[in-house]
Amino acid sequence: xxxxxxxxxxxxxxxxxxxxxxxxxxxxxxxxxxxxxxxxxxxxxxxxxxxxxxxxxxxxxxxxxxxxxxxxxxxxxxxxxxxxxxxxxxxxxx
Length: 94
Fold this sequence. Notes:
This protein is mainly α.
């Protein structure tokens, strides 16, 4: 689950996933019992949980993207610093 959600969201995500599973089972019970209105209300709760899971997943994607960009910037800066150091050494020797 850690590949889908940031560490701070993992407990909330697990609770949402459990809630979806439980509520889906209750929806089936309602349908089998002919309680369609109740099933519809529960279905809306499932939708809310899924939207929350999607929000948390998108937060992880954004964090991963930001970390990748920062790592690229850092690598570029380190490369530039190495190039400057080499040029300075060459100037001192030449």
